[in-house]
Design a protein that fits this description.
Blueprint (H helix, E strand, L loop, with lengths): L3 H11 L3 E5 L4 E5 L9 H12 L9 E5 L3 E9 L2 E9 L5 H10 L6 H8 L6 H16 L9 E4 L11 H8 L1 H4 L8 H13 L2 H9 L13 H22 L4 H16 L4 H26 L5 H12 L7 H7 L4 H12 L3 H19 L4 H7 L5 H12 L3 H5 L10
Parallel strand pairs: 3-6
Antiparallel strand pairs: 1-2, 1-5, 3-4, 4-5
Helix pairs in contact: 3-4, 8-9, 8-10, 8-12, 9-12, 10-11, 10-12, 11-12, 11-16, 14-15
């Protein structure tokens, strides 16, 4: 028995809007909810007419192509009952193209309808037809092959020979069909990075859990290598977003480095992509925590001072030079720094060096004396003293695997 739960399950698994209607274009079931109000009844009747106009005795499920590059699938699953699946995008589309389609073809600017349309997946012709045949079997029990479905170019909607040359190539060229790759949309990537920069974990979860148009790009022919390259590239973008959001440079980069090192030990593609999502959530949460601690944005001189310190932990940092770099006096910088961060510049510098030392002790082959020298401590004994005061264990104990008793905020 066909009910609303069936349409819901199909939409949840395929992200393709689905509608059941009678031969007059009256809708009965649909998923998501907005799809029942999405199509003008004249358009639904036109789809039905296109389907019923096939030669008698040769009626097959139909895929209708409409500009600006959208596919719909229609078939009869019972007497006087039709299944409509779509739209899906044959090629990646800009939101402006989809909005134009909604206004000119669907006669709507409704926000809920646009929200559904903006989330439609990209499906090359063969992949969409394969999914459509699965839907037919789910709703009618009829098993079909891809070859049982035919393409129809609806000239009533300003369609070129096969929508356009780009889609024509995808539909007709078997050699290219399985190798064409479209990347995830630029807008989606920007939204994800903005959520991390803002420390908005709820918005990040919404973006990462929503249906995504496009696919991960191909940087290697070896799937496992491609997944690792993707994580490294994504980690770089996420780290920069977190730094822009106020996370200290070293903290953000240490987190990114740690995830890349975890990736090195993985040989499962799904685990790598899962790790990538985990890094996004981790950095976003750290940005949110940082914003809560600070309460308000740092002033320009203090922000520039923290950025300079982060870039130069391996150099001797002189207060006068630091103030000059920040275009202020040492006295003003010291006062503002203490007021805004709660720490003196000296204490802040030691804290950031300890963060770096903690990371290097666990994630590098450097010895304790090498790390001490790298961070510009005049004596290893002094470095050890500061480290133990900070973490409750000595550098040697921490490097050996003893957990820190305290952690920096």
């Amino acid at each position: 028995m066909i009910d609303q739960s069936t349409t819901n399950r199909f939409y949840e698994s395929a992200s393709i809007p689905t509608l059941l209607m009678d031969n007059h274009g009256n809708t009965h079931l649909g998923a998501p909810d907005a799809v029942r109000e999405m199509f003008p009844i004249e358009l639904l009747r036109k789809f039905i007419l296109d389907y019923d106009s096939q030669a008698e005795g040769a009626i097959k499920p139909l895929v209708i192509a409409i500009n600006p590059g959208l596919f719909f699938g229609i078939t009869k699953i019972a007497p006087h009952l039709y299944l409509l699946a779509g739209p899906v995008a044959g090629v990646p589309l800009e939101n402006s193209d989809i909005a134009d389609f909604a206004k000119s073809i669907l006669n709507t600017t409704d926000s809920e309808v646009l929200r559904v349309l903006y989330r439609i997946p990209v499906r090359f012709y063969r992949r969409f037809v394969s999914t459509f045949t699965c839907a037919i079997q789910l709703f009618s029990g009829q098993a079909l092959n891809i070859e049982d479905v035919i393409i129809f170019n609806s000239k009533d909607f300003d369609v070129a020979s096969v929508v356009n040359a780009q889609i024509s190539d995808i539909i007709l060229d078997d050699n290219r069909r399985d190798s064409v790759f479209y990347h995830t949309s630029f807008e989606w990537e920007v939204d994800v990075l903005r959520a991390v920069e803002a420390g908005n974990c709820a918005e990040l979860a919404e973006k990462l859990n929503a249906p995504i148009c496009g696919q991960i790009g191909a940087m290697s022919e070896i799937p496992l290598t491609n997944a690792k390259y993707t994580l490294i590239a994504t980690s770089t973008l996420l780290t920069r977003a977190a730094i822009r959001g106020g996370l200290p440079n070293e903290d953000a980069r240490n987190i990114g480095d740690a995830y890349c090192m975890q990736m090195d030990r993985l040989d499962d593609i799904k685990e790598i992509y899962s790790l990538m999502y985990k890094e996004a959530y981790d950095l976003c949460a750290k940005v949110a925590e940082r914003k809560q601690q600070i309460g308000k944005p740092l002033s320009r001189p203090v922000r520039e001072a923290t950025e300079y310190i982060a870039r130069n932990l391996s150099e001797k940092i002189d207060l006068e030079k630091l103030a000059l770099t920040c275009s202020t006096t040492s006295r003003t910088l010291s006062r503002k720094f203490k007021d805004e961060t709660g720490l003196s510049i000296s204490d802040y510098l030691h804290r950031e060096k300890m963060r770096k030392a903690q990371y290097l002790l666990r994630n590098s082959s450097l010895g304790i004396i090498d790390i001490s020298n790298l961070l510009q401590y005049s004596a290893q004994s002094y470095f050890t003293k500061i480290f133990k005061e900070t973490y409750g264990v000595t550098p040697k104990q921490y490097q050996a695997g003893v957990p820190a008793k305290t952690e920096l905020e």
